[in-house]
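Supplementary Text 2. Reproducibility record for the structural model of the 547-residue chain.

All settings were left at their defaults, and a single model was retained for analysis rather than an ensemble. We include the record here because the model underlies the residue-level annotations in Supplementary Table 4.
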Amino acid sequence: MEIHFLSEIISIQDGEETRDFEIAQLVRPGQLLVSIADQDSAPGKESADGEVRFLAVAHCEVSAGGRSVLSTVTGYPHCDLKNEEDEKTVSVSVTPLITVSEDGMKACMTLHPPLGDTPGLLQEDLLQMLAAAGIVQGIDERSLNKALEKATLQRQPVIGQVVARGMRAVDGQDAHLRMEVELGALPGKIRGDGSVDFRERRMFVSVEEGQLIATKIKETSGIPGKTVYGQPIPQKEGRDITVRVTEDALYNEKFGTVRAAKAGVVSIVKDSVIKVSSKQTVPGDVDFSTGNIYSKNAIEISGSVQPDFVIAVRGDVLIGGDVQSATISSHGNLVVKGGIVGAASNINIRGDADINFIENGTLHAGGNVVIRKSAYYSTIIAGGNITGDPKTKILGGVLVCGGSLITGDIGSGSASPSDISVGTDVKRYQHYQELHRKVIELEEETARWLQRYGAEAERSAKMIDWERELAKARAELLLLNLIPGSPAHSSSADFTFDDDAEIIVHGWIFAGTRLRIGNCSRTVAINQDKRKYSMDPMKNEIVDESL
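Retained model, structure tokens:
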């Protein structure tokens, strides 16, 4: 066997220790590395070297005749010889001069000191090799010079030094309303570090006629990125918003300004709807003394809402006490200082809802929902996020939101499991549940029919109609896409998900809890604490990790 490249052992400093390191001659693609010395013997047969078997480990290949090994990259070769009785195994590998990360955003270089008295590489040589590898973006010539200096002057190997970086795409900013009146931070907002703002919502901010309330800031397109190969990386463009106002506010589309058409109190709903209304005050409870309340105004109730009473308003609602088996609807936002209690409690809010606790109630909000203490056996549907304090407790019930869910504990050792769905279009989810119930009902109905009338029932007109209806419901259930902002019906191959949607549990989550993110579902198998559940884009499944 003959080796066709040069190498030598040098001493290098590794921390406080000195160790040996093998450096080799730089080889190019197609260059011969090793071959069988006896040309009269075939591979695998006895030769002057005995029986020889080549093993190409990395970045090289055995020739078609099996008599030699060739490099497939520019780099530094290495071979190991292993003798076993009459057979020699020669393992050959090449360490590439240049490696590029899987995402194409980083190119690294490994550089050996020159052998003996041979001249070292120049910066021009390295630049040519980078160009030959197709690397054109973000080349760091200072890093190249440092690598050359270390390898040539200090005679130390350079391992994996970054010499080029791609340019990451800069996503555009969504359009938004810049408030020109001080509304304060909205409670339940998830900060950039993942924490939640739990300051109280500032309600009933007064404005004068003609006062500037907000200015629309337009979306930006962002900046595309590039890999080290110069390939473009598309950016995510900012999304526009549609600004809507009530009759008591004026929107100038040309200048993007919103002004009050009359004096009143202002509220903002789901970040893009601005309302100005008068404020109505109820100094005590809503009961037989007040009757039901129907109003265009915002309303502040210092007491509670007693059972069976109705509040239907267009402005914001602030309730100082509890909601006890009552009905509340609002085109604005809701704050309940006490709790929502009773199976007859039915709350429908177009904006955000901020509550202390809810027991056996139903709450629908178009925006975010803040739960400050607990949610027991209730149905909570939110178009945005559902956020709780790290001590908030959820027992049983169904919670569905278009964004993320953050809470303390979910479940207990004795409670019925909760159903938690995030990154889910709430209207499609409700349709999904209806279809699921329909499939179960039809399956049970056909089973009862067959049990009652036997095999002949399979050919009846009623059974044929049921089976046709059942097949249609199953097909729609299979194709229904629950991901917000995506087509309502897609094949499974087209399904995507919102990779920002997460379930964050600061306390304990108990076995049996059913989780959903978009179209994927999972049941928690064991009790766990301090977990974050999100989508794995490679596996397309829900995964969890410690907080």
